[in-house]
Amino acid sequence: QVQLVESGGGSVQAGGSLRLSCAQSGNIYGHYSWLTWFRQAPGKEREGVAAIYSGSGNTYYADSVKGRFTIYQDAARNTLYLQMNSLKPEDTAMYYCAVKGYTGSWYVPREYPYWGQGTQVTVSS
Known about the structure:
The protein has 125 residues and is mostly beta strands. The protein is built from no helices and eleven strands.
């Protein structure tokens, strides 16, 4: 059974930083899976923020966060992280971690069978 447990959300002022964590367990997490952060703001569609392909270590980012966010994993602790710097009010959203197998595109939410509960990030100006 796959389990994803998120932490690290909170409220910060513009320009601040947060680090989100997602503890992962089960038979999906491994060397050849997509490990991804999504976010969803009120009234907007869920969007892919950042992903890492565990088989290669390659990372992928939405244009809106490139240069500000960093995704990385601690394989020994089965934990996925999202370091968020220079936060902006438009980053305010519920953030989710999700995992899937080796096929498809990283930014398509419907392709992901496993999701965390979500953690709220609020950035004020």
